[in-house]
Amino acid sequence: MSPMRVLVTGATGFIGRRLVPAVAEAGHEVLAMTRRPEDYDGPGEAVGADVSDPDSLTAALTGVDVAVYLVHALDRADFEAADQAAALAFGVAAAQTGVRQIVYMGGLGPEDERQLSAHLRSRRRTERHLAAAGVPVTTLRAAVVVGHGGVSWELTRQLVHNLPAMIVPRWATTPTQPIALDDVVRYLAGVIGRPETYGATYEVGGPDQLTYLEMLQDAAEQMTGHRQPIVPVPVLTPRLSSYWLALVTDVDVTTGRNLIDSMGVSVTVNDTSIRQVVPFEPMSYVEAVRAALAEREADKG
């Protein structure tokens, strides 16, 4: 595959700051899109643009072959409207500038939107809005991405770190399929510029299907050497859960509430076709936890 000009939105975010170096190492010319290009110090060329400002997108996307869309507004009360407007504007600008492929990181969940939380429903609609102007979208759908700096992982780490014992809401018994951040980056980089993936949707996950309670216990064992006492409490509502998370972690109430709403939905991989497109063995949950903890320690130094 010949080198391409690849724009990565959210280049300083949780996934973006790991993806940009991987795309550059693959031999592509990388444009790192950020709202503050003057502060960017990573690989590639910094490009100033904002998905909430449609007028800024045309210049950023001009000459781009592939655009990777890693933006969402989960910390806003009106995140659904903001996500849809941004995705539509981005898709239109991509079509007008001749972008060949948009790669999007979406969320796992049932096809029936009536079964989805507002967060997952917004992710699903974002897929459609990005594609509305005609640029083929390659979507990777994931559940919990485990890596240093990720909101879902930080919830887990801080709960284990701050509480010697826990009462947890009913969503703690919902099955999910976590995936390591390194593996998400590998999958994203692996579909860039691949015509056979244009317009396709793939489900990505690690090898383990676990409940959130099991994830907390496994993380506790890696962090403290033992499993913590955890008791599910059915009457703890999503709203109360979000206040509880804000009390014992640094995740704000709005983000916590939106994440908790999604945690009531079973999100596991049913289609493994991505393994034929980008073949490798994903990390186990325990391996992903160890990698996240090691990166956090390295960051401290």
Question: Please, could you describe this protein's structure?
Answer:
With 301 residues, this protein is of the alpha/beta class. It has a domain of 183 residues: Rossmann fold. Helices cover 42% and strands 17% of the residues. The strands form four sheets. The protein has a seven-stranded parallel sheet with strand order 3-2-1-4-5-6-11, sandwiched between helices. α5 crosses α7. It is globular, with a radius of gyration of 19 Å.
Task: Report how far the terminal alpha carbons are from each other.
Answer: 38 Å
Classify the secondary structure makeup into a structural class: alpha/beta
Per CATH, the architecture of the domain at 5-146 and 178-205 and 267-279 is 3-Layer(aba) Sandwich
What is the CATH level 1 assignment of the domain at 5-146 and 178-205 and 267-279? Alpha Beta
Strand fraction: 15-25%
Radius of gyration: 19 Å
Could you describe the largest sheet, including whether it forms a barrel?
7 strands, parallel
User: Major sheet: order of its strands?
Assistant: 3-2-1-4-5-6-11
**Principal-axes shape call:** globular
